[in-house]
């Protein structure tokens, strides 16, 4: 195959700029350097090396937006021909028998420099398609996440002007990065759709809660957290390891997007050592509230929609002192809604040019007053089941949990419980826990997940789904 060298040019010739204020020297740009090269074009169509077509145009205008006002023709999650059990009991793992006391190889090697074991390492040709109902429904959920991100990133660049971004402390280059992230989502959606085939869910319309650039960024922080965590939660459980391999490579980009939005909001870009994974029903509960309508006959999902859990005193990242956050200081009543940004100027941290108090966009910020802290009393309210939510209002919130008794906190590797003090039919209080993952790493940090449960069932990152039958309501907590 012929190798091609590409032509790279320094931008512009020597510029004779006007002297800067204060007598600074004029900047001289280097002259254009010619590099040996040949003219070349990227292949397209059916040519060798051509890229695969996108499932949706990366430059398509945003979809229509607003709440759904029609009458659903179908209600409830997708159902199989039968359900084996109301819960899945815990049981020992019969395959957990490998033990290596000295690090030496214990079995013959399949080939030189290759240890025995592993999945998909025996020469079987990979097939990049889903292999079970679990795979299909998980990837279908992932496509919904990619589609809303594709639309949301385009939407922000379209409805907020360059001046709006500047007033929020951002630049035209930041706005260009946002548009580039939309292109990434077109690729992610195309990848997942290709692995499902013709019945893959299609682009929907959405109902967003924000009114300002700060609120828009805040919403992106929350949405990319449940999107990233939702995919981490099922990746290792997929029957198709080939599908999991490709999705991991997309998910690595989602994690970077999460950090960018946190930096734009003046938060620490990665205040955790480990990204948490959540069950699909947690992901669908949080995501579906913002999907207004989907095309007719769009593939339906099997996952549960839990009732919403509302943190009454949710910390507001726009405040100099988050402790001064008023009750329900959010823009709406959905669990992922951002905090209000239009607070009094003397209470806002957006334009405070003082280290430790400034929350304008930055690579990293140190906050003298954290958003929350261990021992903070947290006031909670939750909805009753039976609410119509999601695409076309065609999904219904439900729970099989008994009486609320605990609050489950999920961040990083740990699921930590605190007792719930029930104060009314749908309200209660608890105290933020003080658990650590490792020394110097508080278990609860960043955008965390919070649930009211009827028991303190012991679960770990790999079997967190076993808690679903005990979840009374589900929400988010802005811990840092």
TrEMBL record:
Residues 1-23 form the signal peptide. PANTHER family: PROTEIN RDS1, RESPONSE PROTEIN RDS1, PUTATIVE (AFU_ORTHOLOGUE AFUA_5G12490)-RELATED. The keyword Transcription does not apply. Keywords: Signal. This is Ferritin-like domain-containing protein. It holds the Pfam family Ferritin_2. It comes from Byssochlamys spectabilis (Paecilomyces variotii).
């Amino acid at each position: 195959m012929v190798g091609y060298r590409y032509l790279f040019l320094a931008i512009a010739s020597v510029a004779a700029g006007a002297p800067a204020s204060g007598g600074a020297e004029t900047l001289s740009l280097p002259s254009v350097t010619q590099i040996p090269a040949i003219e070349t074009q990227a292949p397209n169509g059916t040519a060798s090396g051509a890229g695969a077509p996108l499932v949706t145009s990366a430059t398509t205008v945003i979809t229509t937006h607003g709440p759904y006002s029609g009458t659903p023709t179908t209600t409830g999650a997708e159902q199989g021909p039968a359900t084996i059990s109301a819960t899945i009991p815990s049981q020992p793992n019969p395959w957990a028998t490998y033990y290596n006391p000295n690090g030496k190889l214990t079995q013959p090697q399949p080939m030189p420099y290759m240890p025995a074991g592993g999945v998909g390492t025996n020469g079987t040709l990979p097939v990049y398609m889903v292999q079970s109902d679990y795979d299909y429904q998980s990837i279908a959920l992932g496509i919904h996440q990619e589609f809303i991100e594709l639309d949301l990133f385009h939407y922000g660049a379209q409805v907020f002007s360059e001046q709006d971004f500047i007033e929020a402390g951002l630049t035209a280059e930041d706005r260009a990065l946002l548009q580039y992230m939309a292109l990434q989502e077109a690729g992610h959606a195309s990848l997942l759709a290709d692995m499902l085939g013709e019945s893959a869910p299609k682009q929907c319309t959405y109902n967003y809660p924000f009114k300002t650039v700060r609120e828009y960024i805040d919403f992106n922080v929350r949405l990319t957290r449940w999107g990233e965590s939702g995919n981490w939660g099922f990746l290792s459980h997929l029957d198709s390891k080939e599908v999991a391999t490709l999705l991991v490579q997309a998910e690595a980009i989602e994690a970077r997007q999460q950090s960018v939005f946190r930096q734009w909001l003046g938060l620490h870009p990665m205040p955790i050592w480990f990204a948490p994974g959540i069950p699909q029903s947690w992901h669908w509960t949080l995501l579906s509230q913002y999907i207004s309508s989907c095309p007719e006959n769009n593939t339906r999902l099997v996952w549960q929609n839990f009732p919403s859990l509302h943190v009454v005193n949710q910390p507001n990242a726009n405040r100099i002192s988050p402790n001064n956050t008023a009750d329900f200081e959010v823009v709406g009543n959905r669990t992922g809604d951002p905090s209000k940004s239009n607070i009094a100027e003397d209470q806002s941290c957006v334009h405070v040019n003082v280290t430790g108090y400034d929350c304008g966009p930055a690579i990293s910020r140190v906050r003298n007053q954290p958003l929350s802290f261990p021992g903070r009393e947290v006031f909670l309210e939750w909805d009753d089941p039976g609410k119509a939510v999601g695409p076309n209002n065609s999904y219904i919130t439900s729970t099989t949990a008994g009486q609320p008794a605990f609050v489950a906190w999920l961040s990083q590797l740990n699921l930590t419980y605190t007792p719930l003090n029930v104060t009314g039919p749908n309200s209660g209080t608890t105290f933020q826990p003080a658990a650590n993952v490792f020394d110097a790493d508080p278990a609860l940090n960043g955008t965390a997940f919070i649930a009211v449960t009827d028991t303190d069932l012991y679960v770990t990152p790999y079997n967190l789904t076993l808690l679903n039958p005990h979840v009374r309501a589900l929400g988010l907590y802005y811990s840092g």
